[in-house]
Amino acid sequence: MQDTINHHIEIYTDGSCHTQICIGAWASIILVDGNKINLSGVVENTTHNRMEILAVIKALDYVVSNFEHSNEIKIVSDSQYVVGLLDRQTKFISSNYKTKAGNDIRNKDLVLQLFNHTDVMKIKFVKIKAHQKPTDVVNYNNEVDKICRSLVRGNLNN
After folding, report:
1. I want to staple 40 with a disulfide (CB 3.0 to 4.6 A). Which of 21, 27, 107, 122 is the partner?
2. Whether 18 contacts 157, CB under 8 Å
3. Which residues are within 8 A (CB) of 96 and not within 5 positions of it... i.e. 6 or more apart?
4. Could you give the dihedral angle defined by the CA atoms of residues 126, 129, 131 and 133, in that order, rounded to the nearest 10 degrees?
């Protein structure tokens, strides 16, 4: 049966990486009409920024596969890198995703995947302050941060 409901979707994402041994983790919490879906993963030979953007891509991949219709997708991230990518899309396209030195921009593969989603979906990015103190209000940004850090710590000795 085809999903024809217009869903309200809010996504919280984070990524983390142990810089010395390059083990990273990403996490996403997807709120669909009030229901919570957790996604996460661990990646070797990676960077912090790759994990930040991968968290967004994995969440959007999930939404595309499971919720074809949505009124709006709001992505909340503490990553200035991720939130700022859309503002630089025109510049990236005009430079063919190259730096002034003629090299590919960092994380070109993931940036292109993200733009493939943003080109066909109505997505609003919201920058949130990282590592906020706990309050009575549920803070999904803190939750995805804890998931990422826990996954990285849990995979240091593997």
Report:
1. 27
2. no
3. none
4. -110
- Running DSSP on this structure, what letter comes out for residue 68? -
CA distance 153 to 135: 25
Q: Measured between alpha carbons, how far is 15 from 25 in angstroms, rounded to an integer?
A: 6
Element (H, E) at 145: helix 140-154
The least confident of 5-19, 49-63, 73-87, 127-141 is 127-141
* CA 105 remoteness from chain centre: 18
Residues in the chain: 158
Tokens representing 111 are: 């940036």
Q: What is the DSSP string of 78-134?
A: S-HHHHHHGGGHHHHHHTTTB-TTSPBPTTHHHHHHHHHHHTTS-EEEEE--SSPPP
> What is the tens place of the pLDDT at every residue in 19-76?
999 999 999 999 998 899 999 999 999 999 999 999 999 999 999 999 877 768 999 9
Q: What is the pTM of this model?
A: 0.91
